[in-house]
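ARCHIVE CARD
Drawer: 12
Card no.: 0347
Subject: one protein chain, sequence and derived structure
Cross-reference: see card 0346
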Amino acid sequence: MIIQPMSQPLNGVTPLSHLGVIAVQGDDAASFLQGQLTQDFSHLGLGQARLAAYCTAKGRMLASFVGFRAADGEILLVTSRDLLASTLKRLSMFVLRAKAKLSDASAEFDLYGAAGTAAESLAPGLREPWHRADAGGATAIALYPADGQRRVLWVVPAGGPAPQGAALSHEGWAWGEVRSGVAIITTPIVEAFVPQMLNYESVGGVNFKKGCYPGQEVVARSQFRGTLKRRAYLAHSQGPLQAGQEIFHAADASQPCGAVAQAAQAPSGGWEAIVSMQVALAQSGGLTAGGPGGPALTVEAPPYPLLADV
């Protein structure tokens, strides 16, 4: 297959080698996750998936997942591979008497991303983010779109047939991830944000009506008491950007006003990023990444409405 040029970054299929899978198996799989993650897994239907975060007691995000029910008593969590081992170890510490077993199931599945017409062809009925459907032996999950282009996560047992479609470069997929405005947690940003700082409550990543989980009080207080002063935005720069870079404002170069959560090269040149920063400064100009003399940033609103009323 011929790799499509970056001028058409969101039309094709690519392997997602940067992601892995945690399997949670047992009669208490759903109830265990219900008490650990920010989303509702007790009422997870077969036609649904969940975006969720795993937080510290202070509400800071340790990892993020796309989870779905693979079978009765089995839930799969797709997460960033660089955090899988540490996340699996930490979650396993809290199983205690629950009938749930956690394991690294990455070798048991192949993960792909499909975008544009490829996503339309593979999963024509999946329109709403976090809806899920079986496709033969594979699972298709609708993700948030990027600049209006549909995107699908495709999970198939290892060695199964790859989804059909033109080859999409990994760089093109990474750019689409950023343009979707939904950041995933990776090593450089562990414990950097509470979920709302990445707009997780607005993209289906937090359920405020479920029971307790680590950090739940902090997350709820941020939402209902108006204490949240940072939000996620899209940003562009002509200079290179990377996750974890601090953001500075010209009015106060002594301390950062935000950070880059996820970044990728843009097909039209420069770099695109999801940035989390002070709301009061987001549209003010004079922003740079990495330091007061770093690459200049232009910031735009996220590509979805923010949740104003829970």
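Annotation on reverse: The CA atoms of residues 146 and 180 lie 4 Å apart. Residues 1-8 have pLDDT under 50 and may be disordered.
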